Amino acid sequence: MRNLIFALLLVSSPAWAGDPLVPDPNLTPGIFLADATVDKICQKGYTATVRHVTEAQRNKVFSDYGIPRSGEYEVDHLISLELGGSNSTKNLWPQSYRGTWNARIKDILENRLHDLVCMGKIPLSEAQYVISHNWVESYCKYVPTVNCKGLIK
Q1: CA 137 – CA 142 distance, rounded (Å)
Q2: How far is it, in rounded angstroms, from Cα 86 to Cα 68?
């Protein structure tokens, strides 16, 4: 009986549901800094001046998502710092390094959106919106590749 209860706990745990491709909007709606401007975020070295995520925040993010801490995840900013994202836990989620749609792929989108904002091609508010609502679809729009086949309508 004890083994059955343990097995049921494992199966019902969100950690066993697979890696989230996009964060849970109830846990991570995406928050940006109110004072983030194009002039600020486009300055070289900007992210180093605002990056501050504590171990307590990291632990809370993993706990909230029911995922054990491991080297297979990073605590990622949904709205990246380079797009004016906040260090609030409402902007953080455990993003996997595994699979096609992983943390390194999202980094490519973050860099592309940052470049587009700094070149004046899209407004900062648009970049913040698209990355916070579905970064995979945004990737397919702004960095289209063969990985996007069937994802774009």
Answers
A1: 9
A2: 23
Q: State the CB neighbour count (10 A cutoff) for residue 132.
A: 22
Residue 81 has pLDDT above 80, yes or no: yes
- What pLDDT does residue 148 have? 78
pTM of this structure: 0.84
> What is the predicted pLDDT for the residue at 145?
79
Distance CA 117, CA 99 (A): 28
Q: How confident is the model at residue 6 (pLDDT cuts 50, 70, 90)?
A: very low
Number of neighbours of residue 90 by Cβ within 10 angstroms: 14
Mean local confidence (pLDDT), 109-128: 98
